[in-house]
């Protein structure tokens, strides 16, 4: 049986090069090897953006365009909208009986995220979003879930919930396995540990050539390099990290030039700008083509959502039967 992959994004902002390196390019490869379901997680976005539904509405389409721009093919992968699958909400309620409040409170990722978002008090929805994620995975019986290290606690919880369900009622759900790849986390243009739109250190996938050049020009470098001839430390420089992530074959030469002080930062940045522009240009073109046909994009999302919904209905029929909640046949 073909393995099924579930992956996706919270729809709170446009996608950037960090997403490309960390997950999008991997998804483009996955769609050829597995049955791939890609979730536009608008309900999960509500956990932090419940007062700004318009932001979610806008970004849903922007992210769909980002997916198409990087080469995700709706003929191969099922792209769907989380809130349009009510069965996920139903499964979340059933799953919520199988998880204690303490388990959720002690989830290290939930703790770290609530701190990062400056939440003094967590809502019920925020605290419980890992349960909703378990339902996202289980409704389509995904067997593989690509995750970063920080998402492993969520996947472990999903596995526990599925196991508990299967043992308690009937083994109708698939226990998902993590796919922890060597997907690197891209640092921000300011040199901070993570590229993130909210930190203002991201290069968006839809940026123009001019924006790209400006962002690279302003990006941090090794502060020890003031003059050409100063020896640099590429490992603390975001520009070197990008060379390595996007054109690994040229990275040894950059390292050598930086460490010996023979390559100037301006020349190093110019080379990176050229390479990134070559990478992003076909994405810009694809994005523009799809952006000119918003009705087609909506129809594609609606078709993917309908397909996912069919799978969800079948799973919930089995879930209800397993739980003896199938009252009227
Ligand atoms: S030469 Fe390149 S890698 Fe070295 S500090 Fe300058 S920008 Fe960074």
Task: Describe this protein's structure.
Keywords: Aminoacyl-tRNA synthetase, ATP-binding, Ligase, Nucleotide-binding, Protein biosynthesis. The protein is mainly α and 329 residues long. The chain has two domains: 4-185 and 293-322, HUPs (Rossmann fold, 3-Layer(aba) Sandwich), CATH 3.40.50; 207-288, Tyrosyl-Transfer RNA Synthetase (Orthogonal Bundle), CATH 1.10.240. Helix content is 56%, strand content 8%. The chain has 14 helices and five strands. Helix 9 (152-168) links the parallel strand 4 (144-146) and strand 5. Helix 3 packs across helix 13, helix 8 (129-139) crosses helix 9 (152-168) and helix 10 (209-218) runs antiparallel to helix 13. The model has no long low-confidence stretch (mean pLDDT 93). Residues 221-222, 225, 232, 234, 237, 239-240, 254, 258, 263, 265, 268-269 line the site of iron/sulfur cluster (SF4).
Highlighted features:
329 residues, mainly alpha, Rossmann fold, Tyrosyl-Transfer RNA Synthetase, 2 domains, 3-stranded parallel beta sheet, 14 helices, 56% helix, binds iron/sulfur cluster
């Amino acid at each position: 049986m073909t393995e099924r992959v579930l992956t996706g994004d919270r729809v709170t902002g446009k996608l950037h090069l960090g997403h490309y390196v960390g997950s999008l390019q991997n998804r483009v490869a996955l769609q050829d090897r597995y049955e791939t379901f890609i979730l536009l997680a608008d309900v999960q976005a509500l956990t932090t953006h419940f007062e700004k539904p318009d932001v979610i509405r806008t970004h849903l389409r922007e992210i769909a365009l980002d997916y198409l721009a990087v080469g995700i093919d709706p003929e191969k992968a099922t792209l769907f909208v989380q809130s349009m699958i009510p069965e996920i909400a139903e499964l979340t309620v059933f799953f919520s009986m199988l998880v204690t409040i303490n388990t959720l409170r002690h989830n290290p990722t939930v703790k770290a995220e609530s701190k990062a978002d400056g939440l003094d008090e967590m809502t019920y929805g925020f605290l419980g979003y890992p349960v909703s994620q378990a339902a996202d995975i289980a409704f389509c019986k995904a067997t593989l879930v690509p995750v970063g290290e920080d998402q492993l606690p969520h996947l472990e919880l999903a596995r526990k919930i599925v196991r508990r369900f299967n043992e308690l009622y009937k083994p109708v759900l698939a226990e998902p396995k993590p796919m922890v790849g060597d997907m690197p986390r891209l640092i921000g243009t300011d040199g901070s540990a993570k590229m993130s739109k909210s930190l203002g250190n991201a290069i968006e996938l839809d940026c123009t050539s001019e924006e790209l050049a400006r962002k690279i020009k302003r990006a941090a470098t090794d502060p020890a390099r003031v003059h050409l001839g100063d020896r640099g430390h590429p490992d603390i420089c975001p520009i070197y990290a990008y060379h390595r992530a996007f054109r690994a074959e040229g990275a040894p030469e950059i390292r050598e030039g930086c460490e010996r002080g023979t390559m100037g930062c301006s020349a190093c940045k110019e080379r990176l700008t050229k390479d990134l522009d070559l990478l992003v240009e076909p994405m810009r073109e694809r994005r523009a083509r799809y952006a000119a046909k918003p009705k087609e994009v909506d129809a594609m999302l609606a078709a993917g959502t309908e397909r996912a919904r069919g799978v969800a209905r079948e799973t919930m029929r089995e879930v209800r039967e397993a739980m003896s909640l199938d009252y009227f046949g």
